[in-house]
TrEMBL record:
<dbReference type="Pfam" id="PF00316">
    <property type="entry name" value="FBPase"/>
</dbReference>
<dbReference type="InterPro" id="IPR033391">
    <property type="entry name" value="FBPase_N"/>
</dbReference>
<comment type="subunit">
    <text>Homotetramer.</text>
</comment>
<feature type="binding site">
    <location>
        <position position="293"/>
    </location>
    <ligand>
        <name>Mg(2+) 2</name>
    </ligand>
</feature>
<comment type="similarity">
    <text>Belongs to the FBPase class 1 family.</text>
</comment>
<feature type="binding site">
    <location>
        <position position="128"/>
    </location>
    <ligand>
        <name>Mg(2+) 1</name>
    </ligand>
</feature>
<feature type="binding site">
    <location>
        <position position="104"/>
    </location>
    <ligand>
        <name>Mg(2+) 1</name>
    </ligand>
</feature>
<dbReference type="InterPro" id="IPR028343">
    <property type="entry name" value="FBPtase"/>
</dbReference>
<keyword id="KW-0378">Hydrolase</keyword>
<dbReference type="InterPro" id="IPR044015">
    <property type="entry name" value="FBPase_C_dom"/>
</dbReference>
<dbReference type="InterPro" id="IPR000146">
    <property type="entry name" value="FBPase_class-1"/>
</dbReference>
<keyword id="KW-0119">Carbohydrate metabolism</keyword>
<feature type="domain" description="Fructose-1-6-bisphosphatase class I N-terminal">
    <location>
        <begin position="12"/>
        <end position="206"/>
    </location>
</feature>
<comment type="pathway">
    <text>Carbohydrate biosynthesis.</text>
</comment>
<keyword id="KW-0963">Cytoplasm</keyword>
<protein>
    <recommendedName>
        <fullName>Fructose-1,6-bisphosphatase class 1</fullName>
        <ecNumber>3.1.3.11</ecNumber>
    </recommendedName>
</protein>
<feature type="binding site">
    <location>
        <position position="126"/>
    </location>
    <ligand>
        <name>Mg(2+) 2</name>
    </ligand>
</feature>
Length: 351
């Protein structure tokens, strides 16, 4: 029998990472980090998949037992938020590949405990993004970002994480949907792996994802429309005018309100995802967090041929001022992101 051509065999994540290491795209320490995060995501997938049968739905209870537990974002934590955070912390403590971790669910970053060896990387994550969708059985996900720890740091603190998104050495998410998929970039393309539950391993199912440069699909929460700034109002007005307006084509809208699911859709078939600044919370620059939501998603999108801005400048060039800062997000099909950004830049230069 003729053996299958080398590329016809499904590659496991491990084989893919070995080949990337051989290509010089990552070193053994970073490979271990990615494999540990992927293994933690498999455990989160099992917990999420149990739903009501796992006894982990609903709000986490505050330590004192009275009322819901509230995180640093001021949001009620779900039991699965806390569980997912613990799974990622425990999985990454002993490996020796990290100098510290930061999470949406933790007020401050944490150095690796003294009991374990320390490595050269910093891991940031949103352990379970979109968790308000858990209770209504909608896809949610884990988002992660990897930075290098600056040289000669004895004890990692928040300030060591404050690097622009262009400094990321790897980024990815795991989406817990009808299938569980890990989408990953090491700076050489964006690649998708599907969890084979029988083997318990991620299998490469899409190498080098490409986002179409044009799109007819936008994702935004329209209920905030009256709170947007003028260029945002103008841009969406023209989208809604469709073929009868200046854009000359009709658009469709999707909003899952789970960033991982909305971004996975546009990575797969194109689209633009927007969470703009709004005057509902004028003190906050939008709702999404720069370090562990916008930056990793922007790297994945750019590596797939898309674009990402904060409405004015490239998102990966935004210099962070604090760990949990928020940022307006425009990302997806390159031409559409450029068009939405043009409305903002033109408006600014005219005022
Ligand atoms: P809204 C989920 O809570 C999240 O952080 C993102 O996953 C999602 O894109 C956004 O907020 C949804 O926000 O205001 O539409 O509920």
């Amino acid at each position: 029998a003729v053996s299958p051509a080398p590329d016809s065999t499904h590659r496991s994540l491990t084989r893919f990472l070995i080949e990337e290491q051989r290509a010089g795209h990552l070193n053994p320490e970073l490979r271990l980090l990615i494999e540990v995060v992927a293994r933690a995501c498999k455990r989160i997938s099992v917990a999420v998949g149990k739903g009501a049968l796992g006894g982990v739905l609903g709000d986490a209870v505050a330590a004192g037992g009275d009322g819901a537990s509230i995180n640093v974002q001021g949001e009620a934590q779900k039991k699965l938020d806390v569980l997912s955070n613990e799974i990622l912390l425990e999985a990454n403590a002993w490996g020796g590949h990290l100098a510290g971790l930061a999470s949406e669910e933790m007020d401050h970053s944490q150095p690796i405990p003294d009991a374990y060896p320390r490595g050269n990387y910093l891991l940031l994550f949103d352990p379970l993004d979109g968790s308000s969708n858990i209770d209504v059985n909608v896809s949610v996900g884990t988002i992660f970002s990897v930075l290098r720890c600056p040289e000669g740091v004895a004890e990692v603190g928040d300030q060591h994480f404050l690097q622009a998104g262009r400094e990321q050495v790897a980024a990815g998410y795991c989406i817990y949907g009808p299938s569980t998929m890990l989408v990953l970039t090491l700076g050489h393309g964006t690649h998708a792996f599907t969890l084979d539950r029988e083997q318990g391993s991620f299998v490469l199912t899409q190498r080098a994802m490409r986002i179409p440069e044009e799109t007819r699909e936008f994702a935004i929460n329209m209920s905030n429309q009256r709170h947007w700034e003028t260029p945002m109002q103008d841009y969406v007005r023209d989208l809604l005018a469709g073929s009868e307006g200046p854009r000359g084509k009709d658009f469709n809208m999707r909003w899952i309100a789970s960033m991982v699911a909305d971004v996975h859709r546009l990575l797969t078939r194109g689209g633009i995802f927007i969470y703009p600044w709004d005057r509902k919370d004028p003190g906050k620059a939008g709702k999404l967090r720069l370090m562990y939501e916008a930056n990793p998603m922007s790297m994945l999108v750019e590596q797939a041929g898309g674009a990402a801005t904060d409405g004015r400048e490239r998102l990966l060039d935004v210099l962070p001022g604090q760990l949990h800062q928020r940022v307006p997000v425009f990302l997806g099909s390159k031409r559409e992101v450029e068009e939405a950004t043009r409305y903002h830049v033109t408006h600014d230069s005219a005022t």
